[in-house]
Amino acid sequence: MRQGFEIVIVGGGITGLTLAASLVAMKHAGALSITLLDAAPRPSFSVVDDVALRVSAIATGSAQLLDAVGAWQHVLDSRASAYERMCVWDENDTPTSGTALNFDAAEFAVPQLGFIVENLLLQDALLRRLDSADATLDFSSPIRSLRQVGRRYRVELEDGRKLLADLVVGADGARSFVRSAVGIETRKWPYGQAAFVTHLMPEHAHEATAWQRFRADGPLGILPLADGRVSVVWSTTPETAGRALKADDAELGRMLSVASDYALGELTVSGPRGAFPLGAQHAQHYVLPGIALVGDAAHAIHPLAGQGANLGLQDAAALAAVLESALADGLHPGDRPVLRRYERARKGANATMLHFMTGLNRLFTTDSRLVAELRTAGMRLFNHSGPIRERAVKAALGVR
Ligand SMILES: Cc1cc2nc3c(=O)[nH]c(=O)nc-3n(C[C@H](O)[C@H](O)[C@H](O)COP(=O)(O)OP(=O)(O)OC[C@H]3O[C@@H](n4cnc5c(N)ncnc54)[C@H](O)[C@@H]3O)c2cc1C
Q1: Which end of the chain is more exposed for a tag (fewer CB within 10 A), N or C?
Q2: pLDDT per residue over 223-247, tens digit each?
Q3: Where in the sequence is the domain holding 78, given as residue range(s)?
Q4: Is the pTM of this model over 0.85?
Q5: Which residue owns the Cα nearest ligand 1 atom 11?
Q6: In sequence order, what DSSP letters do the residues of 157-220 get, joined into one string?
Q7: Do 197 and 275 share a structural domain?
Q8: 14: CA distance to ligand 1 center in Å?
Q9: Which of 18, 45, 53, 56 maximizes ligand 1 atoms within 8 Å of its Cβ, making it the mutation to test the pocket?
Q10: Model confidence pLDDT, tens digit, residues 117-174
C-alpha cells in the first residue's frame, strides 16, 4: 500500500468535521495526511451559554454515525433534546384531527425519533474528537485559489501558504468555493421563501414533540428544546420574514402564536432571531478526479423535514467508507473510479430527498382547492397505510 496521501477538506461545518472524524477513525488512517481548512474562526461552545440560534433535528441514524466516530457522547452529556413524538398538520385542520399525522417513538419500538441539537454543539463534539487525533485543523484560513497540477491540486490560502492535495473535498456549504473553482455546475430550484428562526417559551409544555404546521406561505416547524423552550423555523415569504426580524418581542410573539394556530398556546419570544434564504440546489457532479463534494456543497434542500445536515452526515460516512476500501485495495483515493463509487452511493438518494421536499413544499403552498382536497384525502390515507407509513418513518429516522 502506498503511504502518505494528502487529503484537504475545505469546510469545518458539521459535514466536513464528520468526514475528518470518520477518516481518522478508519483502519487505514495511517495512509492519509488530513488537513481541514475553514475560512471562519474555530467555533466555540459552552453549556453555560444560552442555546444558540441554529439547531438541527438529528435523526437516530445520524446519531449512530456520530457515535461511531466518538462524538455523540459529548452531545448527550451537554444538552441534546430528545423528541419522542412528531405531529404534522394542515393549516385547515388541527393537531388532533383525523388528517393530522402523528408519530410516536413507542410505535416504532425506539426510545426517541431523534434529537434537537445545536449546530455549534455538534461541531464542538467533533472538534474534541479531532483534537486528540492525527489531523491538522486550520481555522480562519480562507482559500485564495485551487489549481490542478498534474494529478494533484494546489490549494493556495489567503495568507500565501500552499498545500498539494491528492484529494480535495469541498465541504464548504451551499456557496462552495471548491465547486465553482473546479467548474461543477448546479441545478437550482428557487422557493421564493425565507426561513425565519427564533426560540420561544410556549404557554403549554412541548411534550417532547416536534410540531409542524403546513401553511399556505410555507411550513412552520416547532422543535422542542431541553429547557422547555421551542425553536421555531418558519418558512415564509421573504417579506414576512423581514417583518418578523424587525418586530418587537411582543409583536413577534403574536405573529408566531397566530402562525402556529396556538397549538402550544401563547408563544413568548425568548432568544436571538435570524432569517435564511431558502432554495434547493443540486450539483451536476459530486466528483472529478481529485475532487469530491459533500454536504450542502453538493446539495441544499428545504429544511421542512430537517434532513439537510442528516444527508451531509451520510455523505461523509459514505465517502469515508469508499476511501477506506480503496486504501485497503491499494488504490489512489483521488481516482475517478474510486470517487464515482461515492457519487453512486449518494447522488440518487439525495436527489430523491431533494425532489420529495420540493414537491411537499409545493403541495402545501398551492392555492388550488382541488389539490388541497386531494392532499387532505392523501393524509388520511397515509394514516391508515400501515407499511407505507412505517417505511416513511424509518426513512426519516435514518434507519432501515
Ligand atoms: C433554517 C434552517 C434550518 C435547518 N434545520 C435543519 C434540521 O433540523 N436538520 C437538518 O438535518 N438540517 C437542517 N438544516 C440544514 C443544515 O443546517 C445544513 O444542511 C448543514 O448545516 C450543512 O452543513 P455543511 O457542513 O455541509 O455546510 P455549512 O454548515 O454551510 O458549512 C460550510 C463550512 O465551510 C466554510 N467555508 C465556506 N467557504 C469557505 C472557503 N472558501 N474556505 C474555507 N472554508 C469555507 C464555512 O465557514 C463553514 O464552516 C437547516 C437549514 C436551515 C437554513
Answers
A1: C
A2: 999 999 999 999 999 999 999 999 9
A3: 60-119+193-279+367-397
A4: yes
A5: 309
A6: ETTS-EEEESEEEE-S-TT-HHHHHTT--EEEEEEEEEEEEEEEEESS--TTEEEEEEETTEEE
A7: yes
A8: 7
A9: 56
A10: 999 999 999 999 999 999 999 999 999 999 999 999 999 999 999 999 999 999 999 9
